[in-house]
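Prompt: May I have another protein with tokenized structure?
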Amino acid sequence: MAGSVHDSQMYNKLFPTGDAGRLFTDSAEVRSMLIVEGALAKAQGALGLIPEVSAAFIHRATLEIPIDPGGLAVSAGKNGVPVPGLVAAFRKALEAPEHAQYVHWGATSQDIMDTAQMLRLRQLLNHCETGLTTLLSALADLAETHAALPMAGRTYGQFATPVSFGSHVAGWGWPLLDLLGELPALRDASLWVSLSGAAGTGAEFAGQGATLRAALAEGLGLRDPGRSWHADRGPVLRIAGWLTRMAQLLGKMGDDLILMAQSSAGEVRVGASGGSSTMPQKQNPVQPSVLLALARQVVGLNATMQNSGMPRQERDGAAWFTEWLTLPQLCLSAAAALETAQDMVPGLTPDGDAMLEVFTSSHGLLHAEALSFRLAATMPRPEAQEAVKALAKQVIATGTPLGDLARAAYPDLDLSGLFEPDQQMGDAPANARAFAGAVRSL
């Protein structure tokens, strides 16, 4: 098996990353670092920190000269970072020593790498925004179409009270809608430029460090945090946390669907079911299983990411390396979960007959709470609860429907509509429609 399923020729279709996969390659990293170097030179030229003619030459060259990532391996292995090798290779490719000397003027490797990473994370968040919008639209369609389809609600894995399939879908969608709404603030609080020099003091920028950082931020479309953040990994951890929550929410959806599609329930059909190598009858819920597996991986990776959040002193190689080992996989797996969910949701089909059969086979126990409240109109609530508990035990012991036992025990009690699932869903249909409306208003 390949070191990463996302790079595997066998498994990349099972865990598809879509366009996000292009953001986490050696070529993408080198290209983004060159963009930062070019923008830095341009800003320094405008401020007179380096000759303007050299700044223009360097900026143009960063857009035109390709650097082979493989050629940086030896230098990265020796120095612990690829930037020294990148700068050396770029200066050589310029074939203009009078200009090449001004490349990377006063910056440090972490300035270039952190800023380049933010350029790619910005694209990833844009990708997630588009994907979430598409997914929410599909969930809204599903919730609205089945807003009034009765379904057994379950708590602790046990039958609870009637809900609707639409409200269950809305339960998946509401927190995703919240995540989408958090993106503007997340971008503002996390997509930062980094430019602080060797030890975070900007001493090499002739007293213009703050002005230069602001100019670089404007040139790259990133935010100027107004300070060094070499040893503050908060921006990266915030983005990782947001991606983790997205993966968790999609994993919850997948886990619910695994249970709903299992042979003993069969309440939902997953459009892209998988087959078995030996059992012809199998319709395996592959995509829901992918969502759950990816969520578990992302949660674990985020736990590892937290260890990068306490770097020693002004910079810490071990903490930084931990981030490199972890963040790309976290991003790719979260993106794969979103890709999988987008593909899966339009093919989901609820089985109304199977859902109705649950109410029948449970002998009315899903209406026990409603019966206790109906009885509470004639006796104190605690007594009503005890009475219904006693009836429920009879149902379990004899298989007699709760409705029959209730009618026999309380012949004068009005039980109209109480054992009709479509009349006992409370606000579930309204909640499903409210979710759909909220998505439509985006």
User: Anything to note?
Assistant: The first helix runs from residue 26 to 46. Residues 365-418 form one domain. DSSP finds 16 helices and four strands in the chain. The longest strand covers residues 158-164.
